Amino acid sequence: MNCKVCQSNKIRFYRKVNNYNLLKCKNCRVIFLENIDELIDSQNFYNEDYFENYLYESELNFEQIKNTAKYYLTYIQKNFGVVQSVLDVGAGFGLFVKAFRELGLKAEGVEISKYSAKTALEKFKVELFNDELIKYPSNEKFDLICFYHSFEHLPDPVSYITKASELLSNRGILWLSLPNVMSLDRFLNKDKWNGWSLPYHLFHYSPSSIRKLLLITGFNKIKIQKSFLNPLRLIRRNDGARNLEISGSINYSRLKEIVRLPATLIFTGQNMNVFALKK
Ligand SMILES: [Zn+2]
Q1: Of 6, 198, 217, 277, which residue is 20 to 30 A from 30 by alpha carbon distance?
Q2: What is the pLDDT of residues 88-125, one digit of tens each?
């Protein structure tokens, strides 16, 4: 077996979490679920049950989602260049797409789940491309492609990044928001860490392994933002991972946290936002 990130065959057993075996590549250090190929049937994996709680929260959180989109868009434009069009991969109910449109961008979304794409259209009036990213028409180009808590769900990371690169305009920008397996949050929570989210999260990246993947696939100017630890997260350990994903890295006020718990400053949270420029 070769690593799906760097092709190395130096794979070893890493640990068992909630009865799932996790393996680790000794070369690029990415951690991944054993037997991914046998396990995954994405179209049926992400059914109504998976999205059940998520829908309720999405309706409540649209303003938060829009603020998140606005915050990162500002950051990206300041650091990388002008963004006029965006493709959201793993668009869920299309709320990021809707938010980007309300912010004045041309925005499209890709979503593998039939249930989710149908809900996006019926409930939020957003039409999504309901298939694999690989099948998205290559003649369309985007200034920004984002994978907002979707990349860790994907079974073949290199092929997705390669396709995203094809869909990016010249000097287009890639934005990945995903759990950081080397975060303090993870070490404190051990097997109860929300970022494991097994069997849905197939790959577990650290800043160094995600950087390696982006270099292999032809990106540069890689910037990684690690979010602060939300102190409340330590208390609410049993919350569903999706709940934390949607309330993610930006929606609580950093300033408030700093006032509330000075130790916040030295901790890094479970999420990281990764930005990179197409060469
Ligand atoms: Zn590897």
Answers
A1: 277
A2: 999 999 999 999 999 999 999 999 999 999 999 999 99
Place of tokens 């309706």: 59
233-256: average pLDDT? 41
86 CA from centroid of ligand 1 (Å): 29
Question: Do strands 142-148 and 106-110 pair parallel, antiparallel, or not at all (unpaired)?
Answer: unpaired
Alpha-carbon distance of 16 to 7, in angstroms, equals 23
- Domains by residue range for the chain, with CATH: 42-278 (3.40.50.150)
In sequence order, the β-bridge partners of residue 43 are none
Contact at 8 Å (CB) between 270 and 183? yes
Beta strands in the chain (DSSP E): 11-17, 20-25, 31-33, 85-89, 106-110, 142-148, 168-179, 203-204, 219-226, 271-278
Structure confidence by residue, pLDDT tens digits, 14-73: 999 999 999 999 999 999 999 888 776 655 677 777 776 666 666 668 888 899 899 999
Residue 220 to residues 78, 145, 171, 212, Cα–Cα distance (Å):
17, 15, 10, 10
Q: Which two tokens stand for residue 238?
A: 């049993």
State the pTM of this model.
0.84
Distance 40 CA to ligand 1 centre (A): 20
**Distance from the CA of 10 to the center of ligand 1, in angstroms?**
8
Q: Give the alpha-carbon dihedral of 263, 76, 138, 148, to 10 degrees.
A: 20
CA angle 52, 182, 113 (to 5 degrees): 25
Q: How confident is the model at residue 256 (pLDDT cuts 50, 70, 90)?
A: low
